[in-house]
Amino acid sequence: MNALATAVYDRAADSSTTGPSSADTTRGDHLPRPAVLDLIGNTPLVPVRRLDTGPCELFLKLESQNPGGSIKDRIGLSMIEAAERDGLLGPGGTVVEATAGNTGLGLALVARAKGYRVVLVVPDKMSSEKVLQLRALGAEVHMTRSDVGKGHPDYYQDRAARLVMDIPGAWYADQFNNPANPLAHETTTGPEIWQQTGHRVDALVCGVGSGGTLTGLSRFFAKVRPGLDLVLADPVGSVLKDYVETGTYGDAGSWAVEGIGEDFIPPIADLSGVRHAYAVSDTESFATARELYRAEGILAGSSSGTLLAAALRYCRAQTTPRRVVTFVCDTGTRYLSKVYNDHWMFDQGLLKRAHQGDLRDLISRRAEDGAVVSVSPEDTLATAFSRMRQADVSQLPVLRQGQLVGLLDESDLLAQMHMDARHFQDPVESAMSHDVHTLPPGAPLSALIEQLRGGLVAVIADDQRFYGLVTRFDLLNHLRKGLS
Ligand SMILES: Cc1ncc(COP(=O)(O)O)c(C=O)c1O
Prior knowledge:
By secondary structure, this protein is α/β, with parallel strands linked by helices.
């Protein structure tokens, strides 16, 4: 049996010895408690073997193995069961939360399993994968604006607070103020680490979103291992590191890592036990997450890159061997289109490419990287159409041995198909535009802008070769980067 299979087997064994939760008597309907809830927690702890950890042993607690894919399943369960015990949530009840991420997924998993209605208010920057997953669970998702701050009626937390007043029997989970959030980590995450390390752990490296994880762990380890080093991993731009080091903080910047870092000190966060704090840039966080996958085969989200980067710095700075634990907070499958997508990484400036100093720098899918989606003149129009759909593009360069021979777009396809769909079997050559206007790499930006005011793409090519297409989106992205 492999390590993961063992972990699942162990968790099932744990649940059969502890028996059903007392909350079974107060859940939202009369169906049996789904077994998936017994898979929350008891996550594996694995050693890092192939990264340089200096004189230390570094272990990763794989919170990504929770059934909802993140550490937030734990607080989904503990906050809902505390509300049931306190009589705040009962049959026919509704769980409401304002969330931009994993907390919504954790709450929705638990609440739907228990038969509650779930209403989540999410800012419109939330990734579409997460929204689709929430809806698949049966949660009602209210989208609201990302560009407004606290106090604005459309701010996601203000909107959620209003919904709680309007829905009879609604309960607001409110992870930033809910004591059941740190309690979940004090009573489950901490004891698990203590037991899994055989009571031999010298340092923990944590991030802070709501502060629940760090606060709960700090409380647990203050009791069992008072000398433990608590280390904060904070994104550059967040105010938490400054607060830990100086007791004050200024204006926050911005960062792309999701789930950790704050522009304020969360009410439930107790940072007084933190001994060291590291600020980690987006570039280092994303690169470290990618490195973790390549080196250890563990697919993690962006914040796990921040935590691991800080943990590695801490480990390498030690002069005596120490046993250090950090977290894989969520699964990387939710970030395939970001952290693990080179195009997105280039667009964000998180991966650097050779700078050419001409229009080639604006091409996001470059021919020289083999990244251009194209067709040959002999391919069928059906093939061209399915490539367009797959890559979500409206036009394709037509290439023969790397040379541009034409361009095919949706209107070319439509012109063939509207009379007779059998033309899908015709070759691309029969429908493509042969006479393609191209710009050489050295053309001025003004020529590119002019071209894109009239057409959807500009083709960058010279007599020697085809370099790629520049879309309006690529141009806008280039102009925006110029501002930052
Ligand atoms: C994605 C993600 N969510 C949440 C957390 C922890 O957040 P909280 O402080 O709310 O417990 C982390 C911590 O590293 C995280 O990486």
